[in-house]
Amino acid sequence: MSCALxxxxxxxGYDRHDRTFRSGPFFFSLRQGELAMLIGPNGVGKSxxxxxxxxxxxxxxxxxxxxxxxxxxxxxxxxxxxxxxxxTETSFPFYLSIYDLISLGRIPYLNWMGRLxxxxxxxxxxxxxxxxxxxxxxxxxxxxxxxxxxxxxxARALAQDTPLILLDEPTAFLDVxxxxxIIHLLNDIAHQQKKTVLLTTHDLNIAIAEADKxxxxxxxxxLMGAPEDLQMKNQIxxxxxxxxxxxxxxxxxxxxxxxxxxxxxxxxxxxxxxxVRLTQKALERIGxxxxxxxxxxxxxxxxxxxxxxxxxxxxxxxxxxARCADIYSLCRILNDLxxxx
Amino acid sequence: MRRTCxxxxxxxTGFIHKNIRLMGISIGKMLRxxxxxxxxxxxxxxxxxxxxxxxxxxxxxxGQLFGIFTHTSEHSAAxxxxxxxxxxKAFAAVMAGIALGVSGLLTQTYFRNPLAGPDVLGxxxxxxxxxxxxxxxxxxxxxxxxxxxxxxxxxxxxACIGAGITMLIITLIAGWVRDHVTLLVLGLMVGAxxxxxxxxxxxxxxxxxxxxxxxxxxxxxxxxxxxxxxxxLPFILIGIILAFFSVKSLNALLIGERYAQTLGIHVGxxxxxxFISIILLAGTVTAFCGPIAFVAITVPHISRMIFRTNDHxxxxxxxxxxxxxMMLLSDVFSQVPGSDIALPINxxxxxxxxxxxxxxxLRRKMG
Lengths: 341, 367
Fold this sequence. Notes:
Radius of gyration of chain A: 26 Å
Largest sheet of chain A: 6 strands, mixed
Number of helices of chain B: 16
Structural class of chain B: mainly alpha
Largest sheet of chain B: 2 strands, antiparallel
Distance between the termini of chain A: 62 Å
CATH superfamily of the largest domain in chain A: P-loop containing nucleotide triphosphate hydrolases
Number of strands of chain B: 2
Number of domains of chain A: 2
CATH architecture of the largest domain in chain A: 3-Layer(aba) Sandwich
Radius of gyration of chain B: 21 Å
Number of domains of chain B: 1
CATH architecture of chain B: Orthogonal Bundle
Strand order of the largest sheet of chain B: 1-2
CATH superfamily of chain B: ABC transporter involved in vitamin B12 uptake, BtuC
Shape of chain A: elongated
Order of helices and strands of chain A: EEEHEEHEHHHEHEHEEHEEEHEEEEH
Strand order of the largest sheet of chain A: 6-7-8-3-9-10
CATH class of the largest domain in chain A: Alpha Beta
Oligomer: heterodimer
Order of helices and strands of chain B: HEEHHHHHHHHHHHHHHH
């Protein structure tokens, strides 16, 4: 299968009066029908890279190739039929209705008068259906919520009917439901309609869970692969400048040298694994490492009368056995023990 | 405001829909149809034009108006007034209204600022300065120069250059400050600075020229003859044609330069065309009619409200129509009944436009 987008030896950057920026070289390619996500720290140049790919900013050097042609050689009007872009712009001073906004996506196909044909209207309606915003058609951009506005902007890009869609932080400022909603819709668009979707995000959990290809952009290197490949090589940790540790199994981010105490959890057979895991997670948060070896603090976990019960036994004072009915109280007791040691 | 207006429009149309039926066609439905509304406004424009021609110091009956088309051999006094005074004045109102309406619309889209206008951003003041320099500085040495045809052309060119320089300054400022209100305040300052320079130029000029300049500064369409209109026409025509050819780019620019670029628009080129169109339209009106306030900024809002769209393919023709209607209406109102006093048209347009702009501002503030 051919590559939808290829980047060769690309240097990006800009030189403005207040600051200059330069980054590269980049080498990567995106295939048709995949959802790729670009992740990296603030100010590393993710947006600049996206803008360079969209031919908004000129590259310093190197080449961006779409369908075998360098974007340098693709006229702007034709470029608009290959690639749609959703920016982080949130200010729309004019009272555009959602329908009018989405129909602006048809501009690359219209003559100088800009009239929509019946076929154009059908494509606009399809884009509205895909993003499930039919009920918002006649509302203005100012009247809808952030999540709805983002969906409308994505629908505009869909109406542009391009094989490639780039999105700059489409999930920023959205609540969890809207975030996943949008990512799932983009996932469907990539897989079902065989489009290539590239987006930037700061949400590591979403990137690891949903990306077909993860691009990690750092100040000095550029890594890519399936999220699982990067996890296997422990490369996700590079994102944290080695200040934190990414646990590939739990998908959680942990602190270095945080686990200074030890405790052993002794669950009864009737206690499900989930409860044991959650207890373990709570212990790690307050600085206890759950060991298999003998430790000075023992936590016996059992079930009585359909309720879970945590019993803390500390070596220092064998007489002291505290019984807790929930993890919150368990943590309070363990914190007190920490100060005793 | 728009929603309230729409609500009342709906209530109104609903009422008509229920109560009146004209040969089986619902008027309410027609009112919601764009082409019908367009026709309605065109009719209003024609009627206002006729009223503007008839109303004035010397009574002219509608019969006399049609008389000039039938009895061409003999001209009565009334007919002479019609041909030499009333008709050029009405045509001037229409042309100025067209140019102001469209230049306001283009300015708002160009700066992506719904409260922008050539007057608010100091562009009109820039062309006034151009005119002042020609009128007062050159006129000092060649007193009759500005009243000749060559003089008219010079005045237009000076006004357009003044408008162009101001547009350049404001465009540069708009690149630095993203905040809408700050841009407007800075525009007002630029305008005030130009007005201050004009005052200095006035101070240095002689009395008779000063008087003609002050009269011009009130905003007047009464002194224009057909020969002036003939000079105005090509400039306005070119401005309007450029605007029409920019429909697609203007629509794309509504959502910002970056989006416009990815929609295949050559933003630099498109903005240059709009830029030229604005300075031609705003410059020409200022050159011949003086600074006329609040038409350019209000007209696009009225057309957006009535035609319920932001599509420039609809907004350009409707803005030029509503601009002409507003100018004709102002001219009719400026005529004090039963006397030869005509109020400055600038005052009337301001009194008509300001309430609407205040309403818009308040709605924005209250969210």
